Amino acid sequence: MAFAHLPECDLSETDLTKANLTGADLTNANLSFAIPGETTLDDAVLTGATLYSINLWGSSLKDASLTHADLREAELAGSVVAHMIGENDDTDPPEFTDADLAGADLTGADLTGATITAEQLAQCASLEGATMPDGSKHE
User: Using CA atoms, how far apart are residues 87 and 120, in angstroms rounded to an integer?
Assistant: First the structure.
């Protein structure tokens, strides 16, 4: 299976509705203001990517790398953004290491096992109903 190799590409304001970008290399790519409803980004490399004000509602980012990604004001409500317990246990959960989550909406997002700090979570606009890295539900 071939994976898209799109490092540093500009996909800002692109309609990626229902696109399958599983395993894509989107290192340092610009996806700001993209419309990726129900997009599959499982195992994608989004290291350093700009996801400013992106709407990832209903999208899947399982086992994606979000290290140093800019997720300011991103909409991740209802997204699966973490390694799921009991599924693909041989892979690592996504890392939000140094990701900027200021104003991000993580309402209902599944962050089970994700590498994310309390400081980053405190920057989020909403965590309502989100499954936290330890598996607990945020109220």
Answer: 26
Burial of 60 (C-beta count, 10 Å sphere; 0-12/13-18/19+): buried
CA distance 31 to 135: 29
Q: Is the pLDDT of residue 106 over 50?
A: yes
- Contact (Cβ atoms closer than 8 angstroms) between residue 22 and residue 5: no
Quick one: average pLDDT of 99-125?
79
What is the rounded CA–CA span in Å between residue 22 and residue 40?
6
pTM of the model: 0.70
Q: Are 82 and 93 in contact (CB under 8 A)?
A: yes
Contact 64, 41 (CB under 8 A): yes
